């Protein structure tokens, strides 16, 4: 390899390495701001990395699994409330007034956006269903009913 | 070791090689598209939660994967273009960029169409969706930059640099669902674990991925040949080619 090419190779490689480093540091610094949502435990105990708790009245998103048997609907309106749990055991209650997405059900992962009312209550104005990466035909899903992550999907 | 590659640094050789490869790519594209689409859209079983809506995966996932594959190819070409200053590598970038941009666009549109009924929202500013949108803008930036210069030597170099800068986005897109809490689900097949998809649904998806790869290859080869002809139009071999064609038609 001739010296000019070697020099260009060096410049180009350092460009790529330098940029990745810069972007890496930026993303690292922004870490908790890029998260789409808080988990229930994070609302109660504060963010994993920083321990910062959300303030009451703060607008935020919360993501977790709908706890079985906690969905209660108001018979006269669209008002609904349910509990969200995560794998570390934190539970928060979400109040919502509106139409829930198709995938909403007990045991389903959802993301709700709204305002923090008290330390563990959220008044949501938007509820989104979070789908997992599992795809299977209904027969297989029935056969696999014993599997852990599916157990919670059955009412 | 790389001696066999040297003749292809000549545009004429590369033009001929691209012409030879093209029919194979087209044949693979047609076969896999027919088999994959019919199997995926008509015969694969419906999902246990999403029903038939999940079938958009047969377009969405291959398009998104190939949008990233196209960018990786462009990044490698950009590196070669900058270090070894091979003009063909620059032409390669110019040829692939619009194809990659269209694939990215398809991935975004099909994702939004699926997101509305499934998530309840067309668009969410989560890390995966946002980084994919940035990919589209980077593609458009490269295309615009390449066409902004009338001096194609300068244009090629500028586009190469921008391509290399944008490559940082690729790992961000891929790992966005791992590093951060996102609404977008995690990886189904591109992970060090067995795919979380039933085999009878996975097979058509694999065929569609091969199909989209071959489609990307065919369109890129076509555009690559055009780019060579456009940039080498003053060369004797191109005029010889044109006169050959014209006398053949008479």
From TrEMBL, chain A:
Stretches assigned to the Extracellular side: 30-155
Main location: membrane
Keywords: Cell membrane, Cytochrome c-type biogenesis, Heme, Iron, Membrane, Metal-binding, Signal-anchor, Transmembrane, Transmembrane helix
Keyword Iron: yes
SUPFAM superfamilies according to UniProt: Heme chaperone CcmE (SSF82093)
Superkingdom per UniProt: Bacteria
Pfam family, any one: CcmE
Matching InterPro entries: CcmE (IPR004329), CcmE-like_sf (IPR036127), NA-bd_OB-fold (IPR012340)
Binding site residues for heme: 131, 135
Cytoplasmic membrane side: 1-8
Similarity section: Belongs to the CcmE/CycJ family.
Function of the molecule: Heme chaperone required for the biogenesis of c-type cytochromes. Transiently binds heme delivered by CcmC and transfers the heme to apo-cytochromes in a process facilitated by CcmF and CcmH.
Descriptive protein name: Cytochrome c-type biogenesis protein CcmE
Species assigned in the record: Psychromonas marina
TrEMBL record, chain B:
Pfam families named in the record: Cytochrom_C_asm (PF01578)
Top-rank taxon: Bacteria
TM region(s), chain numbering: 21-44, 56-84, 91-113, 133-149, 161-181, 201-222
Entry keyword set: Cell inner membrane, Cell membrane, Cytochrome c-type biogenesis, Membrane, Transmembrane, Transmembrane helix, Transport
Subcellular location: Cell inner membrane; Membrane
Limits of the Cytochrome c assembly protein domain: 16-184
Membrane topology term: Multi-pass membrane protein
Cell cycle is among the record's keywords: no
Keyword Ligase: no
NCBIfam families: ccmC (TIGR01191)
Family: Belongs to the CcmC/CycZ/HelC family.
Function (record text): Required for the export of heme to the periplasm for the biogenesis of c-type cytochromes.
Name under which the protein is recorded: Heme exporter protein C
Organism: Psychromonas marina
The organism's taxonomic lineage, starting at the top: Bacteria, Pseudomonadati, Pseudomonadota, Gammaproteobacteria, Alteromonadales
């Amino acid at each position: 390899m001739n010296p000019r090419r070697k020099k260009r190779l060096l410049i180009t490689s350092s460009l790529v390495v330098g940029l990745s480093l810069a972007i890496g540091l930026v993303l690292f610094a922004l870490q908790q701001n890029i998260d789409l949502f808080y988990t229930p435990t994070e609302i109660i105990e504060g963010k994993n990395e920083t321990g910062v708790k959300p303030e009451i009245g703060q607008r935020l998103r919360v993501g977790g699994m709908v706890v079985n048997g906690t969905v209660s609907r108001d018979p006269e309106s669209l008002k609904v409330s349910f509990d969200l749990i995560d794998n570390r055991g934190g539970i928060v209650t979400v109040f919502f007034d509106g139409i829930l997405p198709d995938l909403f059900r007990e045991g389903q992962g959802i993301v709700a956006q709204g305002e923090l009312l008290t330390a563990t209550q959220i008044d949501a104005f938007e509820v989104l269903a979070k789908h997992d990466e599992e795809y299977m035909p209904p027969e297989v899903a029935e056969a696999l009913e014993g599997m852990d992550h599916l157990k919670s999907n059955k009412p | 070791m790389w001696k066999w590659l040297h003749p292809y640094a000549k545009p004429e050789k590369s033009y001929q090689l691209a012409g030879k490869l093209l029919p194979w790519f087209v044949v693979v594209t047609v076969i896999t598209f027919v088999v994959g689409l019919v199997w995926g859209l008509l015969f694969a079983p419906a999902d246990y939660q999403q029903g038939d809506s999940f079938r958009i995966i047969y377009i969405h996932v291959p398009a998104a994967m190939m949008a990233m594959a196209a960018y990786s190819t462009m990044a490698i070409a950009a590196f070669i273009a900058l270090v070894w200053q091979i003009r063909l590598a620059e032409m390669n970038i110019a040829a692939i960029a619009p194809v990659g941009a269209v694939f990215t666009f398809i991935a975004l549109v099909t994702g939004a169409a699926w997101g509305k009924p499934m998530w309840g929202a067309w668009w969410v500013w989560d890390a995966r969706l946002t980084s994919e949108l940035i990919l589209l803008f980077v593609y458009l930036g490269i295309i615009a930059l390449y066409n902004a210069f009338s001096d194609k030597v300068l244009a090629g170099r500028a586009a190469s640099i921008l391509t290399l800068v944008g490559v940082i986005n690729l790992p961000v897109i891929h790992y966005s669902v791992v590093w951060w809490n996102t609404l977008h689900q995690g990886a189904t097949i591109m992970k060090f674990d067995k795919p979380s998809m039933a085999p009878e649904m996975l097979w058509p998806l694999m065929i569609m991925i091969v199909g989209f790869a071959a489609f990307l290859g065919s369109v890129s080869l076509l555009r690559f040949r055009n780019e060579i002809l456009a940039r080498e139009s003053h060369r004797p071999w191109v005029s010889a080619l044109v006169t050959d064609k014209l006398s053949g038609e008479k």
